[in-house]
Write a structure and sequence with these properties.
- Helices cover 19% and strands 22% of the residues.
- The protein is of the alpha/beta class and 395 residues long.
- The protein has one domain: Ribonuclease Z/Hydroxyacylglutathione hydrolase-like (Metallo-beta-lactamase, Chain A, 4-Layer Sandwich), CATH 3.60.15.10.
- The chain is globular, with a radius of gyration of 21 Å.
């Protein structure tokens, strides 16, 4: 199945008021995005898939940033990979790519006043990092450090979940002498350690805020934790990146139950996908991964699957043969550690999901007609994700 998804059509909603219930009195949590421009009649006729205008459901997915990879293309303003799952009066942040804090403000995820010193972080209930590549965590510091002036000071202690320590350096691609590793004493810190190191990195700033502005110590407000992947799957970080396994539940509160599984983003390890089950429906985030049976199992019968994708034709043109050793290494990572546009539709079909949402687009500058191939083999609804798209979850 191949469809053309015109760029004019974008989801959006007006401001919706929800009582926050966070000790803010009558202050509410508002969610909104700019309303899309009307598409032409021809565009409407062609569009078979895509996000409808949000009805302001209790549970909804907000795509904060949809660009994949650390490269920022000149003239393109798409934010780095990050999503928010809104459940009632709180939301959960999945990944923290570049621009995430600004995108949270633009999405009106925070108190209704949304002034410089309010929100959007006083409605944040948790952070979930799929893996520790820079494009997924580069602005985590903006949330956890600058967050002191963006509402973080008014919430209870929130969890910051992500992969643990890799345990070993990745293998060297190709031949030649081994390079000197960065931080040889601890070259692969996990999420818990990253949180501790972040406090050291920003200690000068934080101590000024604490002593002069009387702000709380950040670790009183949040706690970084390693997702407890069963030990039997962590023995060899340079072996099978995603051994066959059942999803496991590691977090639950009054709004969500969160499960995880290992996915194949070698040589990154551990790389995780997450499933959020709510009273209104389920949403799965693939993280970065090649085709992976573990992900299909995690996403079985989900309402929404948010999946990464790469245009393999673009990668081949970017690195034409003959390639240098370094070029070959990057090309192989691109096509072997990510899901090709011709593969993602069949993954959604195998998982029997209702809606496939494409995000972490590599490269994000491709026209939507390129991503039409992602619908092949999938009979559900497909959304080519764009920044600040809002998708309702549940009936």
């Amino acid at each position: 199945m191949c469809v053309d998804l015109p760029t004019e059509m974008r989801s959006g909603i007006g401001r919706r008021r929800l009582m926050a219930g966070l000790g803010l009195g009558a202050a509410g949590l508002a969610l909104g995005a700019a309303a899309p421009a009307e598409a032409s009649g021809a565009g409407k006729a062609r569009r078979k898939f895509g996000p409808p205008k949000s009805r302001g459901s209790r549970t909804r997915l907000v795509l904060l940033g949809t660009a994949g990879g650390p490269a920022i293309f000149p003239g393109n303003e798409t934010a780095g990979i990050a999503s928010a799952l809104v459940v009632g009066d709180r939301y959960y942040l999945i990944d923290a790519g570049h621009g995430v804090l600004s995108q949270l403000h633009k999405a009106n995820l925070g108190p209704e006043s949304n002034t410089a010193l309010d929100g959007p972080l006083d409605a944040l209930a948790g952070i979930f990092l799929t893996h520790l590549h820079s494009d997924h965590v580069v602005d985590l510091n903006n949330v956890l450090v600058n967050g002191l002036y963006n509402g973080l000071q008014s919430v209870k202690k929130i969890p910051v979940w992500g992969p643990g320590n890799r345990g070993a350096l990745p293998p060297l691609f190709g031949t030649g002498p081994l390079p000197s590793p960065v931080s040889p004493g601890n070259p692969t810190p996990g999420t818990r350690e990253m949180g501790e190191l972040m406090m050291q990195l920003f200690a000068t700033d934080l101590n000024d805020r604490i002593f002069d502005n009387r702000k709380p110590v950040p670790t009183q407000l949040w706690e970084a934790k390693d997702v407890p992947v069963p030990e039997r799957y962590l023995g060899d970080p340079n072996g099978t990146p995603a051994p066959a396994m059942k999803p496991f539940t590691f977090y639950e509160d009054e709004r969500v139950k969160v499960s995880a599984t290992l996915v194949n983003h070698a040589p990154v390890f551990p790389a995780l996908a997450y499933r959020f089950d709510t009273d209104d429906g389920s949403v799965v985030f693939s993280g970065d991964t090649a085709k992976c049976p573990n992900l299909v199992r995690l996403a079985r019968n989900a309402d929404v699957l948010v999946h990464e994708v790469i245009d393999e034709d673009w990668a081949a043109k970017l690195f034409p043969v003959p390639r240098s050793e370094a070029e070959e290494g990057l090309y192989q990572h691109l096509v072997q550690a990510h899901t090709l546009k011709t593969e993602v539709g069949s993954i959604a079909a195998q998982a029997n999901v209702d809606t496939l949402v494409l995000s972490h687009l590599v490269p994000v500058i491709q026209p939507e007609s390129v991503w039409a191939a992602c619908a092949e083999g999938f009979k559900g609804r497909m959304v080519v994700g764009r920044d600040l798209d809002v998708i309702d979850i549940g009936r």
